[in-house]
Amino acid sequence: MSAATQFDAVTHHPLGGLAVVLAGEPVVLRPSGALWIEEGRTLVVADLHLEKGSFYASRGQMLPPYDSADTLRRLAAETQALGPRRVVLLGDSFHDRDGEARLAGADGDSLRAAVEGRSLVWVTGNHDPVAPRGLPGEAAARLSIGGLTLVHEPADGAATGEVAGHLHPCARVRARGASVRRRCFITDGERLILPAFGALAGGLNVRDAAFRPLLRPRPLAAVLGAGRVHAVGWASLQPD
Amino acid sequence: MSGGVDSYSFPLPEPFAGWFAARGWAPRSHQLDMVEKGRAGRHALLIAPTGGGKTLAGFLPSLIDLAQRPRPNTPPGVHTLYISPLKALAVDVERNLMTPIAQMGLAIKAESRTGDTGEARRQRQRVKPPDILLTTPEQLALFCAWEGARRYFEDLRCVIIDEIHAIWPSKRGDLLALALARVQTFAPACRRVGLSATVEDPDLIRDWLSPGAGDAVDLVRGAPGAAPVVEVLLSEDRVPWAGHTARHAMPEVYEAIRAARTALVFVNTRFQAEFAFQELWRLNEDNLPIALHHGSLAAEQRRRVEAAMARGALRAVVCTSTLDLGVDWGDVDLVIQLASPKGASRMVQRIGRANHRLDEPSRALFVPANRFEMLECQAAREAIAENAFDTESPRTGALDVLAQHVMGCACSEPFDLTALYAEITGSGPYRGLAWEDYEAVVDFVATGGYALRVYDRFARIVRGQDGLWRARNAEMILRHRLNVGAIVSAAMLTVRIASGRRAAPGRRIGEVEEGYLELLETGDTFIFAGAVWRLVGVTGTEVLVTPAPGEDAKMPSWGGSKFAISTFLAQKVRAMMSDAHHWRVLPDDVREWLEIQRDRSIIPGPDEMLLETFPRGQRHFLVCYPFEGRLAHTTLAMLLTRRLERAGAGPLGFVCNDYALAVWSLKPMDELDFADLFDEDMLGDDLEAWLAESAMMKAAFKACALISGLIERRSTKDRKTSRQVTFSTDLIYDVLRRHQSDHLLLRCARADAAQGLIDVERLGQMLARIRGRIRHARLDHLSPFSVSVILEIGRQRAPGEGAGEMILMDAADDLIAEAVA
């Protein structure tokens, strides 16, 4: 099946981003890397990796201590723009188990402010197997919304309606004798993998073998650009 | 023979005088001068051409001193430290030094220590230091980060820096200058000796070498060698209008190789090297042993070529700047420069690789690849005849290198903040270091230098009760030692032959820089390591290829040299061009080309800039000729396009070479106010806005992050899994720029980019030079001059600004095209 027939429902959404139909559910892929699910007015972001900077600093590599503030500021911008009823953090929200303890008071406050009056769900991930203690929200291993299942790590094999993170998909696109590498969503119309939302979270090229068992052939990459999302076909995606 | 020697108050002592005499040699005057400087305890810079016994001149004072010293009661430390920019050179000099030591029966131990030296020998060298230690700047930096450094070097009497002209104006030079300052603290009486090729301004090196602003470095000059014989190839075939390959001249180059004993064929890029190698072998009916040498080839392959060269088994090597420096090969009697020389000093260096005998002239042949290069070759030839060289500027030490050094000092022993500042500001490149910058560097080393102070408990260096700074723990020390050095090499991919139906990785052919294959698609053919290959694919860090012999290979990237034409040479080219009397030295076809340019357009005066506008196809062109090199032109073109955009000209693209740049647009540009367009104020906000987003800044930032120790190239335990990349410096750059735009490393990256990658200083000087001196020629069609740059269109990459978004748009359009098909 070619990308064209698989994704005939791909349109640019008036709110910004790309509107796609995922396992029958209409969703919007946002230029920020967040997912908007109209059902229950749900905003989903994956792999925040809060306090990654301080994690490395504690081991002698002094990465900037601004990554949590940066990530949470972009999250706040999304909640402000969309007014979700529910915010889902799709796992690996903290870079490591001790991350919450290192989170600056001000950053904790901006998270509280961003989710004020909304429900917050911490989907547990491999970096943060338990929910934070001092922050609002409920922990869950998975969450169902309409026909969609939200989990951190994609299950082996095909899974209709699964929305996951964990892999940090990234696309390399080449044209005009140069190439760019950007974060992206990747979907085959049945399953969707979100890009990492964290400021310092790295990326894994979608041509990597890790994606192969999870997606049908020739999936679509929704590549994050400046203020818009570009739908890029499989043929245009390059390995690193 | 001894006549010249008598005038010296200190003739050579025995056994040295006897050793010279037994060989029928007389010591050269600069060798005796150096001996005298040694006896007087003076710092000295020796400038002498190759083949003048320069290295021996550097070592003689130490050998004499060592031969005459009384037997010490305790085992002595290192007496003389020799630093070379090349590992191979350190090893070669060790070998050459052993000959006189053995022949004179001296009890002197000289040993080399490089990254390749085995662990057992390294250990032994620490416990029992040799009298003379031959090493590299990186190894010396490692020594300085060792807890035994002070004791190890306290007996040091002399440090010799070879090929100093090639080291000092670089980050490696900064690292070396800092290490020398350290060593000088351990051994205050230590004498410094620099050995240099001929340079325009020796005072710059003397100042760099001096251990303190007040300490003079004496200048010693060797007798000049015989003037080189330089010819410019006036090809039977007409000189092409454009291009960089010199394909037209290959039969004549081959004949020149055939007529020589051994030839070095220098080119400016790896692609040119591959191309020339291929072309020469196509013509090689005599099966002459012709080899290839460039930085993308596997190290062992390069070593094999060097070894064959040393044996005298080769007739020619096609090479890039990888062989600009190196061990002496006595048999080389011809240096061929394919395509433009770019600078007079580099050229003299390269020519010096031929004929290491002082009394015989070196021979060189310049082979211009196009008509502008013909002018450039003539200009270089005249510069060499006049003994004129490219000018250089004083060096300001980089702060990322300083950060690495400060960490190294803390690893070696606790330091006092004020004392270390005094030590550092004694070294040439850091003499102007402000205390605030120094403090910022120390703060960066400790906790990353962030305005948000949350990392104090993780500090890499800490201040103790005694007020001294020291490394926090053993792990920090270990990590630092794994990451010493100021060379950041591009990530390399391994090229392997794909074998079997499943295209499994097979035999390794070599390594290529990441980005070398950027312009190639799977299935394309390309030349590498002297053969034609088809690209099967890239997986992880491996490039899989299959042989494609006999196929016409695609030639990616003909952007020409990475070295820009020097300001000095460009000035000479402009002068030659503007003076019609001077055209007589040029071949007929090139002279005709200049005459047609004069008739149809304008030949600008030496300080003027020619600017042409003309329509072509559906577009309007603006071509100007600043002659400031491709880097400065690319920066200028970026900034001009922004301005043309604002002026409503609708610029569509641009292309640059070393001499000119062309911009094309939808609307005519003849009526623009050019004085306004080229106003120097473009180097303000426009420059900063463009630079901040540019890939060049990100590349510069990455290098600074690695050198300064913000991130590690090698880690004690590799936490990376194949599934997840840990972090990229581009992300760090973006976060830092949003939250602390005056951070030390952003300042470092900005300085590096402005200097090395976009040539802002040169652009500024050019804009000042042409103010009020723009000559506009409004033409109906393209001019003879413009052909060279117009023909580059389509061969170069898309320009940077907004290119990322354009690429994504294009790819997204593909999908739409696919959808409607």
Write up this protein:
The complex is a heterodimer of chains A (240) and B (821). With 240 residues, chain A is α/β, with parallel strands linked by helices. Chain A has five helices and 18 strands. In chain A, strands 9, 10, 11, 12, 13, 14, 15, 16, 17 and 18 form a ten-stranded mixed β-sheet that branches. In chain A, strands 1-2-3-4-5-6-7-8 form an eight-stranded mixed β-sheet, covered by helices on one side. In chain A, strand 4 (35-37) and strand 5 form a beta hairpin. In chain A, helix 3 (67-82) runs parallel beside helix 5 (105-114). The two termini of chain A are 25 Å apart. With 821 residues, chain B is an alpha/beta fold. Chain B has 31 helices and 25 strands. In chain B, helix 26 packs across helix 28 (744-757). At the A-B interface, helix 2, helix 3, strand 12, strand 13 and strand 17 of A face helix 20, strand 19, helix 27 and helix 31 of B.
